[in-house]
Amino acid sequence: MYEIALDLLILLGGVWLVALGLFAEAIDLHIILGAYLAGLFFEEKVAHPNLVRIVKDRAYGIAHGNAKTRGAHGRRRHVRTR
Predict the structure, then answer these.
(1) 27 pLDDT exceeds 80?
(2) Element (H, E) at 73
(3) 3-state secondary structure the chain
(4) How many CA atoms lie within 13 A of 13 on its CB side?
């Protein structure tokens, strides 16, 4: 009984994932979802620690670099660099 329920649950989960994938493709979100899912599994267990550090540093710089160059009203302000 439990084996049938587990098989059915796995099957329905697979069907649900395919349906969500087709929906994401239809509204052009497949690239965003793919990057998000890849990021979920990107950690030191599966990649070299130096690579993980480099990617995290760049992602941090991109995210915070955009936030720092905006003024209080959302306009870009001049940021001095060395």
Answers:
(1) yes
(2) none
(3) CHHHHHHHHHHHHHHHHHHHHHHHHHCCCHHHHHHHHHHHCCCCCCCCHHHHHHHHHHHHHHHHHHHHCECCCCCECCCCCC
(4) 6
Claim: this prediction has a pTM higher than 0.90: no
3-class state of residue 3 by DSSP: helix
The residue assigned the tokens 């239809």 is 26
Which residue is it, tokens 């998000």?
A: 36
**Higher-confidence residue: 50 or 80?**
50
What tokens were used for 41?
A: 């599994």
d(CA 81, CA 60): 18
